[in-house]
Fold this sequence. Notes:
Layout: H1 2-14, E1 15-25, E2 45-54, E3 57-63, E4 75-78, E5 83-84, E6 88-90, H2 102-109, H3 114-119, H4 124-132, H5 136-152, E7 155-161, H6 168-184, E8 188-196, H7 207-224, E9 230-235, H8 242-254, E10 258-263, H9 271-277, E11 282-285, H10 291-297, E12 303-306, H11 308-314, H12 321-326, E13 332-333, H13 347-358, H14 362-369, H15 371-375
Parallel strand pairs: 1-4, 1-5, 6-7, 7-8, 8-9, 9-10, 10-11, 11-12, 12-13
Antiparallel strand pairs: 1-2, 2-3
Amino acid sequence: MGKTRKYDLKIKMSYTLLINIKKLLQIRDRGTSYVSGKEMSEIPSIESAYLVINNGIIEEFGEMKNSPKDLEKFNIIDCKGKMVLPSWCDSHSHIVFSGNRSNEFIDRIKGLTYNEIASNGGGILNSVDNLRNTSKKDLLEQSLIRIKEVISQGTGAIEIKSGYGLNMESERKMLEVISEIKAENNILVKSTFLGAHAFPREFLNKKNEYINLIVNKMIPEYNNAKLIDFVDVFCEKGYFSLEDTAQILEAAAKYGLVPKIHVNQFNNFGGVALAVKHNSLSVDHLEVLTKHDIAALKDRITIPVALPGCSFFLGIPYTPARDLIDSGLPLALASDYNPGSAPSGNMNFVISLACIKMGMLPEEAINAATINGAYAMGLEKEVGSIT
Ligand code: NIG
Ligand code: FE
């Protein structure tokens, strides 16, 4: 008797039925990996719908009149008056960090720019000092607080970058923390190695040696330990040049690691074309974009990613979303959650900014933060749409 009851309970636990959904949004067939151009202003949906979830996987859905009649095995959630849509897919974050940089926020109010703050000893290297002095356990605890917060705000999948360690031991610490967040299974996680986020202080006068360390030691070792899904580079003046970036992406390619890179945040010098040439899955930031960049992205696998939170907090231009979408390209939206340029991982805020500051329609912003965000981290078969 006891055994049977346990068994029933297990079945019931695994099946969830959502009924009376006012509108079920973002219904896609299996073949749709992302949406671009005009398609971005449409969100296929069903009014008065039901949805069956079996062990975290969508099993069936449709109009309420066709919903399952045998209700015994289900946990039922009545969604009367509510819309249901995929959770946010945040394809660019630096959510694993230690402490905060609120002092820089004050400096910015006083008129200093991101680069002036960095040259005065702040910026990325400030977070590096902090992270190197933080234990792995403490780093995980601090990061999990943020993870729980973004989950409560609707994020269901997130890409997380390293890049505040900048030496063998501390980059590994970050990547292991990302792995542990992955293993908790509360949110889908992709891990990106961003050793090329900045040159660490101890290598400022021997930059080639740091690139050699990334190429010959970090990438092979972390890849071997299965700690990384993607590789990123901050391709920007004062950080990593086109040549540095090419060298790192070539090394990554030897291990089959796909790039997702930071380009065109403050300066435009050919990063987009380089990323496309190296089959980057995404190019992120793009606040400073030309017609040539847009042309380089046409009919490629590389998806542009806008980070409006960063533009908002730094007071820099927004990515020209209209130019990108109106020229037929796809666009994804992500939070860039980090302690310096975007101290928020709230995707609802990101979507609001996209509409208010970038002229995106709500449907375009929702597509950009669901199916296109999923594509930008290689998760389009698992999340981002009701399929
Ligand atoms: O995406 N631009 C480079 N990296 C981050 C900022 C990181 C930081 O300031 O700590 C960004 O904005
Ligand atoms: Fe970033």
